[in-house]
Amino acid sequence: MERARYNCLYIANTLSSATEVADCLNKIISWLLIAATIILWLLLTGLATTKVFVLIASPLLAATFIFGDTCKTLFQGIMFVYVVHPFDVGDLCAIDGKLMEVRTIGVWKTTFSIIGTREEAIYPISELSTKNIINYKTDFDWNDYVELDVGSLAEESINILKEEIRKLLDGDKDKFTQSFNWVAVTFGDNFKIAVNFRHNVNLKNNTYFECLKEKQKLRSEFIFRVRRLLDQKENAGSKASTEN
């Protein structure tokens, strides 16, 4: 439902932008046709003299001076939104060091919602096209790692635990890739091992928050499964020490 909502927002904004562009282009083309019709009428009636052309050219030059930047901005907005197309509605982007969610897209301006403060930021397309935009939708990081406190375990138990986690990662290829490794981490007298792995997720056309929510869900499931293995090893070690 959430993904459908974002798709509807994108379609609504796309249609709104297309209508906006069509109306503006329609006005520009209409004025050009009117000017061309007047000039053609003057040529056909023989009234086209130097003074008449000077009289017509003066307001045309003034109009070009006034509306030239507007036409340039419009063309730049069309190219940025429909050709460059750096983001969609709902994407998480980093602009000027700020994380912002795309709310609305237009050929004149784009509206963002700043993450954390939920403040609204409005960027003109002419300014936005000059900035470095990082879209986290196109390259979400599915790499993950979990630290395990194994200071209370014997070396043999640690090796067994690592083997069981390896079987867990290798045996569930639908959720994890086969590329993972171990790193020993020490903080004073505390000894931990960190397992680096990658979630095997095939999400397309999803927002950053949808991917983040899915990653947190898979991470939680993995932590609970590893926690059970770790508790089993700690209980086995406690039982063995009690018997001795």
Could you characterize the architecture of this molecule?
- The strands form 2 sheets. The protein has a 5-stranded antiparallel beta sheet with strand order 4-3-2-1-5.
- It is rod-shaped and about 105 Å long.
- The chain contains 5 helices and 8 strands, in the order ααββββαββαββα.
- The protein is an alpha+beta fold.
- The two termini are 58 Å apart.
Order of helical and strand elements: HHEEEEHEEHEEH
Structural class: alpha+beta
Largest sheet, described in full? Answer: 5 strands, antiparallel
Unreliable stretches covering 5 or more consecutive residues: none
- Whole-number average pLDDT? 75
The shape, in one word, is rod-shaped
Say how many strands there are. 8
Distance linking N and C termini: 58 Å
Radius of gyration: 31 Å
Helical content stands at 55-70%
- Helix tally equals 5
Strand content: 15-25%
Cross-sheet strand order for the largest sheet: 4-3-2-1-5
Membrane topology: Multi-pass membrane protein
Subcellular location: Membrane
Protein name: Mechanosensitive ion channel protein 5-like
Transmembrane segments: 28-45
